């Protein structure tokens, strides 16, 4: 088994790398990457769970994460699609928006807090 040395430049930073060549393993041909495969489409945001109660709509966390920001307060009027809470999950920021227009009746989370999936985030009276 031979050790080969390589010099690799990544984003302007030069790295000296040693790699061991394994005998008996033949390189496999790799299919060329097409233009459509080079572009990675962003994944769809997680589906926000909500349920309707007698007093309005309760919006629940779609996945576990950390609360980065709360952009509304109890008593505030919000419109459909307005960002109310921002969650960080899997190193991605997820904007949780108001599913209906109305008045925020309760905020169940705070900035810096953590939530589990299906934990209530906020409630809206419509």
Provide key terms for this protein.
126 residues; 5-stranded antiparallel beta sheet
Task: Report on the architecture of this protein.
This protein has 126 residues and is mainly beta. The protein has a domain at 49-125: OB fold (Dihydrolipoamide Acetyltransferase, E2P) (Beta Barrel). The chain is 3% helix and 48% strand. It contains one helix and eleven strands, in the order ββαβββββββββ. It has a five-stranded antiparallel β-sheet with strand order 3-4-11-9-6, with no helix packed on it. A hairpin with a 2-residue loop joins strand 7 (83-89) and strand 8. The protein starts with a strand and ends with a strand. 14% of the residues are buried.
Which sequence of SSEs, written as H and E, runs from N to C?
EEHEEEEEEEEE
Shape: elongated
CATH superfamily of the domain at 49-125: RNA polymerase II/Efflux pump adaptor protein, barrel-sandwich hybrid domain
Output the CATH topology of the domain at 49-125. Answer: OB fold (Dihydrolipoamide Acetyltransferase, E2P)
For the record, the CATH class of the domain at 49-125 is: Mainly Beta
Question: What is the share of helical residues?
Answer: under 10%
Radius of gyration: 24 Å
The percentage of residues in β strands lies in over 45%
């Amino acid at each position: 088994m031979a050790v080969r040395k390589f010099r690799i430049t990544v984003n302007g930073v030069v790295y000296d790398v040693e790699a061991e060549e394994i005998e008996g393993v033949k390189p496999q041909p790799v299919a060329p990457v097409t233009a459509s495969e080079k572009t990675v489409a962003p994944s769809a945001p997680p589906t926000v769970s909500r349920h309707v109660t007698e007093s309005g709509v309760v919006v629940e966390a779609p996945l576990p994460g950390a609360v980065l920001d709360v952009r509304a307060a109890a008593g505030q009027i919000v419109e459909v699609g307005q960002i109310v809470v921002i969650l960080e999950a899997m190193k991605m920021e997820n904007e949780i928006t108001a599913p209906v227009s109305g008045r925020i009746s309760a905020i169940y989370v705070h900035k810096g807090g953590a939530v589990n999936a299906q934990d209530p985030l906020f409630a809206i009276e419509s």
